[in-house]
Amino acid sequence: MQYCDLDDIDAVRETIRYLGHNSLNIRAIVSFIDPYCALAANLAKEFGVECFSGDAMAIMQDKLRTREILKESPYNPEYLVINEENYLEEKQVKKLLPAVVKYIDSNGSRDVYYCERYSEYLKYSERLFKDYPGGTLVVEEYLDGEQFIVEVLVEAGKVNIVAVIEQEINFINEHFIITGYNLLTNYSRSYFEKLKRSTEEIIKIYGLENGPCHLEMRLVRGNWKLVEINPRISGAGMNRLLNIGFGINLVEETLKLALKKPINLEPKQIKSTFAQYVILEKSGILKKITGKREVLNSPGVEFIYVKPRKGTYLTPPTSLGNRYAFVIATGSNEKEARRNAKNAAEKIVFHLIME
């Protein structure tokens, strides 16, 4: 393994050259981490191993460009682009309320705030400008409806929808925090066909010919709206969820696509599967964690992951990074899988030394 500063593109190029000059045959350059997906795709093109659509990925990583490219489509919410010079335009902002204000380079629910009133909009936009002087914010109408992830792998322009996952979202500590993921195995044909058509049209607009992405979509009064799109598989256990539910290793299939090998996205099994995440209500230093053995012995549990180590300072969530454990469970149906995962997750106890 060779370490380098991924934010220094010249250092990355030099590292790739070093590896290539030391008897390694470089066949692909791939990243599964924001904000390096487009960088990896463009470096692959530069070094003669191009596969993924780097320009499309770069647009997906930019929340402002995402809204601009979809401007004439039916999938955009109403939005405003603001900066420190024009953010006080009260009349325009009030037309959008309730709204969501976000920094254009935010991810994982960080730097994303819900505003019901103009006073809240002022508070959060001023907070973001303080954190990101000279930055650009996007204000979007709040989309009220169920939210889903659509996991996609595009091969030679063919949009393969690998999975649709229902999200459980809670409004906690001024942020939207996703605490549950339900892998859909049973949805009506008309429901799927409309989502499939919307997904294909959105990806065509971006120009993604090869590569992974996931869309966060909301069903608003019978129509699909794009909340967010990212040029990679969803993080935080999504690959494990798909592997348990469908027998599909999407990371492996993505790498096979990058290597120009045949991919196989056919489910090997279909299990009702649910992932429940654990968050905290108080802050403190982690003393110990108990309950993991009880979780593993609980009905339907297939996997448990606990992130923090002893001595780590833990807090209530302000982003998805503050989810400290998750349990994946299966059941005979969606309801049972959800119940199994939630009951098991409750057995994980974080013992904290309070401040």
Description:
The chain has 355 residues and is α+β, with helices and mostly antiparallel strands. The chain folds into 4 domains: 9-60, no CATH class; 78-141, Dna Ligase, domain 1 (2-Layer Sandwich); 146-258, D-amino Acid Aminotransferase, Chain A, domain 1; 272-353, ATP-grasp fold, B domain (D-amino Acid Aminotransferase, Chain A, domain 1, 2-Layer Sandwich). The chain contains 11 helices and 15 strands. The chain has helices spanning 9-21, 37-46, 54-60, 63-69, 90-96, 118-131, 189-206, 238-246, 250-258, 292-296, 334-345; strands at 79-82, 99-103, 112-115, 137-141, 146-155, 158-172, 175-183, 211-220, 223-230, 272-278, 284-290, 301-306, 313-314, 325-331, 349-353. The strands form 3 sheets. The chain has an 8-stranded antiparallel β-sheet with strand order 9-8-5-6-7-10-14-12, with helices on both faces. A 4-stranded antiparallel β-sheet has the order 1-4-2-3, sandwiched between helices. Strands 13-11-15 form a 3-stranded antiparallel β-sheet, with no helix packed on it. Strand 8 and strand 9 (223-230) form a beta hairpin. Helix 2 (37-46) runs antiparallel to helix 3.
Give the strand line-up of the largest sheet: 9-8-5-6-7-10-14-12
CATH superfamily of the largest domain: ATP-grasp fold, B domain
Distance between the termini: 39 Å
Please give the radius of gyration in angstroms. Answer: 21 Å
Helix content range of the residues, please?
25-40%
Secondary structural class = alpha+beta
On the 0 to 100 scale, the average pLDDT is 93
